[in-house]
Amino acid sequence: MSPSYNSTRHDRDGVARVALALLDEVGLADLSMRRIAARLDVQPSALYWHFASKQALLAELADRITAGTPHEDASVLDTARGIRDALFAYRDGAELVLSTYALRLGSSAAQTAVHDALVAGGADSPQERAAAIMHFILGHATLVQQRMHADSYGAVLSGDAASAVDDVTAGLDRVFDLGVTALAGALRSSAAPLRDPI
């Protein structure tokens, strides 16, 4: 049974926490302001005291999803993996963050973390590479989540592919690492690529 949110303090943080919980329950397509308001036992108009629009609320959720992005001594690859894993932690997390990123809403904390890891690794053109890596992370994570959703709903591959693939995400971790490595380019430490020098 879902917990009651009637006692939740209806401030900005409380609304965002309920919205994230609902995202996991119903997915992005069914995450409406009306549904969030019903869970909080308020009128939908009450939500606009805290968020000017649904897009503003989604931007806040995107920031919360990516809040745990590695910083400091994390390598480029570890940073990218951390962002990807954060997207996977929520149902439709990749799609939600991609949609807000495309509209330039929310913070740029995740891309900043990639940029900082590139700078620490001695990469050239870190700003452009960070943007390219973020595009790759978001696209790759969205693809993986869509495959997982399709598989969970019983969608199957046709023809020979169906018999050859048991895991719809098989091999995609390796593809991810190769993509990030290629986009990061040559870093300072050739002995341990994509790692900060000791």
Describe this structure in words.
This protein is an all-alpha fold. The protein has two domains: 40 residues, Arc Repressor Mutant, subunit A (Orthogonal Bundle), CATH 1.10.10; 117 residues, Tetracycline Repressor, domain 2. Helix 6 packs antiparallel against helix 8. 34% of the residues are buried.
Features:
198 residues; mainly alpha; Tetracycline Repressor, domain 2; 2 domains; disordered C terminus; globular; Arc Repressor Mutant, subunit A
Q: How would you sum up the major sheet?
A: none
Stretches where pLDDT is under 50 for at least 5 consecutive residues are: 1-8, 189-198
Tally of helical runs: 10
| Shape label | globular
Fraction of residues in helix: 55-70%
CATH architecture of the largest domain: Orthogonal Bundle
Order of helices and strands: HHHHHHHHHH
Report the radius of gyration as a whole number of Å.
Answer: 19 Å
Q: Quick recap of the structure?
A:
This protein is mainly α and 198 residues long.
Topology of this structure?
Elements: H1 12-26, H2 33-40, H3 44-47, H4 54-65, H5 76-88, H6 93-102, H7 109-121, H8 126-152, H9 160-164, H10 172-184
